[in-house]
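Task: encode each sequence below as structure tokens.

Item 1
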Amino acid sequence: MRRFWVETLGCPKNQVDSHKLTGLLSRDGMVAATTPEEAELVVVNTCAFIEEARQESVDTALALRAAAPDAELVLTGCMAERYGTELAEALPEADRVAGFGVPVSIGAKPGPSLPAFDLLNLPRPPATAPWAYVKIAEGCDRRCGYCAIPSFRGPQRSRSLEAVVAEVEALGVREVVLVAQDLASYGRDQGRGERAIIPLVDDLRRRVDWVRLLYLYPSDLTDPLVDAICATGVPYFDLSLQHVSRPLLARMRRWGDGDRFSARIADIRRRRPEAVFRSNFIVGYPGETEADHDALLDFVAEVRLDWCGFFTYSAEAGTYATTLDHQVPAELAAERHRELTELQDGITAAKRDQLIGRPVEVLVDSPGVARSFREAPEIDGIISVPDHLPVGQFHTVQVVDAQGPDLMAEVAAA
């Protein structure tokens, strides 16, 4: 039997795509290789979000070609879809560039090819972990100034509630992590109203123990949606804020400002004091002044989010941001990035220290590794627990130490 290896880069949405590709290849009679060197087919699910991600995709493809020189090398994912023929010509080491899916019949060279199936609704095999990402929509209808995703992922296309529920039940997990480019807009493209995400969340929380939502646009965080999230037992709010300066957010073609964001977060904390918050911010966007940067520093220091990611602005061809004046020098953007990262690392560490001595309920992901509702899988810190705790089960443990973002815990006394 032919053996395959799938290498996944980029965001959780790519992981969902790779899981579906793995299931498809297995159903076609292939078997997963234990290492890329053993594979006759190597698939690289690429990322094209920023220049650093594109370079990583190219480097990974070249490394896998060197590791498996006789294998068929297929590039798929965002970079393959966005650059197509250009990528095939620039990287002759690849046998095929295949957009958002590997064609059902894997052929030899040359060049790009279109996938022969709908990747979004392709069935998935059961999960191998007690949690799984579930993609509920593809594409995006927003036009943020820095983002090229709509140009190659297309407009939003939501899945039916029934399809999502069926996938969740087939996965057999204790936790589902819902993902999409614009999660709270789920269902709008199907004429199901402004808040179709709420009945979906309500349905899923009756089927699995934990439901977690990633990537929420702040203007869509309504009271009913907050209530629906809290009712899942996972009061975890991943808010796509990007900055807090109103003029800069306007240049980003985004809604909001620091005052609105901090007021919304404070309101949720009043209602659910244990709520956890994550966000991402862009540093060095064209026109970002020292005053803008100071405003972001003040926001991070005062609001004290549990988790933050900071990304240095990357100019993406064809986006509105590339037409703007007052580009920020790379050295200055890197300095601002370091300053924010150092500040947030201290805040995260302090929040983790506050959990020492407290009992927490955790889901064991793998031997010795667990998470509470406070930690999204693969993104946030972990909780180290005794190896004998069964994987896929919930346990109450007591936190005994913290090391930066990670916690150490022991079985709580009865």
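Item 2
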Amino acid sequence: MTLNDPLATLPDDQLVRLAVRDERAFEALVTRHAPAIHRLAALTVGPGAADDVVQEVFIALHRGLKAFRGEAQLSTWLHRVTLNACYRALATRPTIPFDQALEPAAPHSPVRAGEQHDLRARLTHALGTLPPDQREAVTLREISGLEYAEIAALTGVELGTVKSRINRGRAALRDLLIRAGVRP
């Protein structure tokens, strides 16, 4: 699909209806949403498992196209499916206590890239240590950039609960990262 493709300009609800019978429309949806889904998955389960999660999400989308009623935005539905797939992936993975996690190996690149890789690995691991409700709220806010009200609608909890989960999650992440030697 190219930028000149008329499908690229259609809103999600129209693409969903077309994608039931048109593979190009489905490809347009994948092209539009895959980067955000991959970013959310990579920061939730780590870059190594993110591709599997993304594949699972778009298989679920393809299977669910006919049943999608459009009561919520497609992006909201995709975030929920992504988080569910991430939680399934995390549930099957053995856990390692934060203080026993191995230092990630720096890639053969400039020092800055190695530091960023290390910080990203530590942050991903620290996110994995949060309670699921806090991890979900922090990830949806900080990684996906959703507004508090959107997170409340997506998770089915009150706005105040979302705010407190994000605050508690941020505080726990800050403490974990500081103890691990990461300074703000």
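Check on item 2: The radius of gyration is 18 Å. The helical segments are 12-19, 23-45, 47-64, 74-91, 111-129, 132-143, 148-155, 159-179.
End of task.
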